[in-house]
């Protein structure tokens, strides 16, 4: 049977974050990709976490959304996983029909997805956004859930060649089933009336994002430039957030840094145009949607080329940070300010790069994966002749 003769597949999307309750890049990818799949005639039903205490169900055009609360009925808090049998009962009541493919974004749904694969022979596609650390505590269960998905999923999709290489080092067998499909980006508001010395950081607050070095770089820059300001959008642990503010206070730059905390993704996209540059000082990135969104917004980008960043970021479209310390970050930001014509050329190049990363193209590649799995599922089993 040819791929063109198959009906368009139906997919269950399992993700902890789904619009409008988006915290980080995973939620953005899950939401935008699902919308693009729906636009390409893929029936998508979303099973996600709820920000409310009660179960909620909504049905729209070609998409139904089940929002599950973190209550004992649905969720095992100690193991960080949604209960497979609870999901089976709730989907039987509200969705009626099993999907052709299950698409997992979040590790909290690992056991549920693999339960449906085992019981109903439904193929599973896992989008691996990053590899979980094998440290102890809560990371132990996250690592175990990810290991199960990587071993048992029919296909694994990663957003960058760099992440596939990391996967090959830790899970060589899984890497053979991995496909690189980059994320997309929406065309967002163009640059207008931005203030040159206003810098923006967007991301979760933890050490590998380079936020400590960025704060110290603001201290260095402010010696010669009193106009420099940094806005930080994103949340981290209470302990680490206190540490960051303590660094700013000791450096005497508390008044130059604005801590916005969590900001809804749609609002972040509107905010880009108000800044002179987006700074990405990361030590490790599996892809980095923020960098791509900065390009799509027509904003100057000052960034490292860590991890997956190097697959679309270069000296033609961004000011590159050549080290992982505050002096290197300060030098890169100052160079961006000192060369306005070169910065403008990079902004134009960045917009051209961003146009190549559309959610429509990303969804088309995912759909092709889903259709092939759908075809394989329908293929009759070969009979073995008795000897």
Brief account:
This protein is 40% helix and 19% strand. It has 387 residues and is an alpha/beta fold. The protein is globular and about 65 Å long.
What does this structure look like?
The protein has two domains: 3-184 and 359-378, Rossmann fold; 195-355, 3-Layer(aba) Sandwich (Rossmann fold). The chain has 13 helices and 16 strands. The protein has helices at 25-39, 84-94, 110-120, 138-152, 161-170, 172-175, 211-221, 238-250, 265-271, 289-297, 326-338, 340-355, 359-378, and strands at residues 10-15, 43-49, 56-60, 63-68, 75-76, 81-82, 101-104, 124-127, 155-158, 178-180, 195-202, 229-233, 257-261, 275-280, 300-303, 319-320. Strand 8, helix 4 and strand 9 form a beta-alpha-beta unit. It is globular.
Features:
387 residues, alpha/beta, Rossmann fold, six-stranded parallel sheet
Rg computed from alpha carbons, rounded to a whole number of angstroms:
22 Å
Mean pLDDT: 91
DSSP helix fraction: 40-55%
Hey, roughly how much beta strand do the residues contain? 15-25%
Which fold does the CATH topology of the largest domain refer to? Rossmann fold
Q: Which stretches are low in confidence, meaning pLDDT under 50 for 5 or more residues running?
A: 380-387
Question: Can you list the strand order of the major beta sheet?
Answer: 3-4-2-1-7-8-9-10
- Which architecture of the largest domain would the CATH scheme give at its second level? 3-Layer(aba) Sandwich
In total, the number of domains comes to 2
Instruction: Report the order of strands and helices.
Output: EHEEEEEHEHEHEHHEEHEHEHEHEEHHH
- Mind summarizing the main beta sheet? 8 strands, mixed
Protein name: Glycosyl transferase family 1
Organism: Cohnella kolymensis
Domain Glycosyl transferase family: 191-349
Domain Glycosyltransferase subfamily 4-like N-terminal: 23-185
């Amino acid at each position: 049977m040819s791929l063109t003769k198959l009906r368009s597949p139906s997919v269950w999307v399992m993700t902890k974050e789904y619009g409008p309750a988006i915290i980080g890049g995973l939620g953005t990818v899950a939401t935008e990709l699902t919308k693009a799949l729906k636009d390409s005639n893929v029936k998508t039903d979303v099973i996600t976490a709820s920000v409310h205490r009660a179960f909620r169900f909504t049905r729209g055009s070609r998409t139904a959304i089940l929002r599950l609360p973190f209550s004992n009925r649905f969720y095992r808090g100690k193991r960080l996983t949604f209960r497979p049998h609870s999901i089976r009962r709730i989907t039987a009541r509200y969705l009626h029909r099993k999907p052709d493919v299950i698409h997992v974004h979040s590790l909290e749904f690992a056991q549920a997805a693999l339960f449906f694969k085992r019981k109903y022979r439904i193929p599973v596609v896992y989008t691996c956004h990053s590899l979980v650390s094998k440290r102890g505590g809560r990371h132990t269960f996250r690592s175990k859930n990810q290991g199960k998905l990587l071993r048992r999923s029919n296909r694994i999709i990663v957003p960058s060649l760099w992440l596939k290489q990391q996967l090959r080092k830790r899970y060589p067998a899984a890497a053979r089933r991995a496909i690189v499909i980059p994320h997309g980006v929406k065309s967002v508001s163009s640059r207008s009336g931005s203030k040159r010395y206003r810098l923006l950081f967007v991301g979760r607050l933890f050490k590998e994002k380079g936020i400590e070095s960025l704060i110290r770089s603001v201290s260095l820059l402010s010696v010669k430039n009193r106009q420099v300001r940094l806005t930080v959008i994103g949340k981290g642990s209470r302990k680490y957030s206190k540490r960051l503010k303590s660094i700013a206070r000791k450096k005497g730059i508390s008044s130059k840094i604005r801590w916005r905390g969590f900001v809804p993704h749609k609002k972040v996209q509107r905010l880009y145009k108000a800044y002179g540059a987006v700074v990405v000082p990361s030590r490790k990135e599996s892809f980095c949607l923020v960098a791509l969104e900065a390009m799509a917004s027509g904003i100057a980008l000052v960034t490292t080329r860590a991890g997956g960043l190097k697959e679309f970021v270069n000296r033609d479209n961004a000011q590159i940070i050549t080290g992982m310390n505050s002096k290197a970050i300060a030098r890169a930001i100052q160079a961006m300010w000192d060369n306005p014509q070169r910065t403008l050329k990079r902004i134009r190049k960045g917009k051209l790069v961003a146009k190549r990363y559309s959610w429509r193209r990303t969804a088309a590649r995912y759909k092709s994966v889903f259709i092939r799995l759908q075809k394989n599922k329908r293929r009759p089993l070969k009979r073995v002749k008795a000897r």
